[in-house]
Amino acid sequence: MKREFDLAVTAGKPHPCCVPSIERAALLKEPAHVLERVAQGSTAGMIKLDGGPFLMGTDDAEGFPADGEGPVREIVVDPFYIDPAPVTNAQFREFMRSSGYRTEAELYGWSFVFQGHIPEERRAALVDDTVLAAPWWCKVFGAVWDHPEGPDSNIASREDYPVTHVSWNDAVEFARWAGKRLPTEAEWEFAARGGLEQRRFPWGDELTPGGRHVCNVWQGVFPTLDLAEDGYAGTSPVTAFPPNAFGLYSLSGNTWEWCADWFHPSYHLVGARTNPTGPAEGGARVMRGGSHLCHESYCNRYRVAARTKNTPDSSTTNLGFRCVRDV
After folding, report:
1. Per residue in 192-242, pLDDT tens?
2. pLDDT tens-place string over residues 96-141
3. Which residue, 318, 101, 102, is CA-closest to 223?
4. C-alpha span between 48 and 40 (Å, rounded)
5. In the Cβ-directed half-sphere of 93, how many Cα atoms lie within 13 Å?
């Protein structure tokens, strides 16, 4: 039986480069979740950030006010360790082999794949349904973290690419296994800004400074033509582009990143200003950073202040995560 799927929606309008949601959780209010502080796991390979005050959010005219990007407010975060890049396929494989865990995409038997990444001759055999509001998102049976475009694809040449088809629940399990946790939204933005105050991107205000591509986003006409002028028509290695001033990679574009917080468009207006953790409950989790499917004509959410959401059991071909640890 055909099913219609929801697209992550903000401001009442679906944005094509955002991510579709599994239909079940879009109707449910998930129980309260208390952020688990973690200060015992290994910090090998992580970067320590000193924390402190910073200006979070934006009032930029290019933004989406209905998403809750503004107003600009001073936030304070404690010191924390953060992974320099999103979790890679190689790192996630180690977790899978060690733990015997099964991702939610594996349990459901399918995940969402961008149509342009499925060879035309395979689409009829692999694609069951598409997203009603954005038919370029396809429900593909057998699409999981190590078969990103379906059962006849693999990650043999993508060891250092970000793992995808990982739900928020999956990301939490990886983090626990690694002795870490997901970043709060405030920690993520503090890290992404790299010490730059109120800049649009981790490196400044220009998307292509000096005409140079410094992140992996869409070029061309979305969703039909990706010119791949940045060198990639899909995801890219996590260190393919320069890091920000904190030494952190892949904070704009490439893949969305899960954060710990429940999403609400205006909770931050009354929430804490020191180490905020978001609402106590909700139906969708925060995602930050944009992805390789973001394009300025539709969704410029590769800006550091941009935010969107998805249900905790959803997974797609452009959604990953990185971890943090408390000091």
Report:
1. 999 999 999 999 999 999 999 999 999 999 999 999 999 999 999 999 999
2. 999 999 999 999 999 999 999 988 777 777 666 767 667 889 899 9
3. 318
4. 14
5. 13
Q: Which residues have C-beta within 8 Å of that of residue 156, sequence separation ≥ 6?
A: none
* Range 6-30+44-326: architecture per CATH: Alpha-Beta Complex (3.90)
Which residue from 325, 208, 191 is spatially nearest to 249, judged by alpha carbons?
191
Strands (E), 78-166: 80-82, 110-114, 127-131, 134-141
Task: Give me the helix-helix angle, 89-99 and 168-177, nearest 10°.
Answer: 70
Q: In this predicted structure, what is the pLDDT of residue 299?
A: 85
Return the domain boundaries, the chain. 6-30+44-326
DSSP SS3 for 20: strand
Q: State the DSSP string of 189-224.
A: HHHHHTT-TT-SBTTBS-SSGGG---SB---EETTT
